[in-house]
Amino acid sequence: MQLDLIHISIERQLLTGSRAGRQLCQYPVSTAKNGAGELNGSGCTPRGRHRVRARIGEGQPPGAVFIGRRPTGEVWSPELAATHPQRDWILTRILWLCGEEPGINRGADRDSQRRYIYLHGTGDDQPMGVPLSHGCIRLRNPDILALFEMTPAGCAVIIE
User: In this protein, which residues make up the domain named L,D-TPase catalytic (predicted)?
Assistant: First the structure.
């Protein structure tokens, strides 16, 4: 069954997916270490109404590494992470968000899409329930795989 709404609570570090008001899934997440905010370059997680602009990574293996929304051919491992400690790991699947509120999260210096705000997988060594990202919403790899399968392009996303 496909979702029609994804709700992300920054305070609770929790994602809830639903269809027609009925909860279908719930996953712990990690939002921005810098808190909530919409400005480009802030490193914050943008609030408000969004939609899924693009689904990226279909058919890639769990742990597939993405740079610039393209698979590198690498698969995350603790050894790979130790070799590249500076990387912000974007893994497995990407749900790229587009803001729906002009002046809040769409347009000018507040555009979620131009900020490359995603829901994406992260390394197994990263904790959930703790704000640590650079603005995106991180999920465990099995969780982003399941969420990706349920989420169509255009799905509504509310971040608050």
Answer: 4-160
* Helix, coil or strand: residue 26: strand
Summarize pLDDT for 39-86 with one digit per residue, the tens: 999 999 999 999 999 999 999 999 999 999 999 999 999 999 999 999
Task: Please count the structural domains in the chain.
Answer: 1
Measured in whole angstroms, the distance separating CA 8 from the mean position of its chain's CA atoms is: 10
Task: Check residue 45 and give its pLDDT.
Answer: 98
Check if 44 is active-site. no
Question: Quick one: which H or E segment has residue 117?
Answer: none
Total number of residues shown for the chain: 160
Q: Which domain holds residue 151?
A: 5-159
Q: Is 50 a catalytic residue?
A: no
Out of 44, 50, 98, 120, the active site residue is 120
Burial of residue 64 (CB within 10 Å: 0-12, 13-18, 19+) is buried
| CATH number for position 49 | 2.40.440.10
Span 20-28, average pLDDT: 98
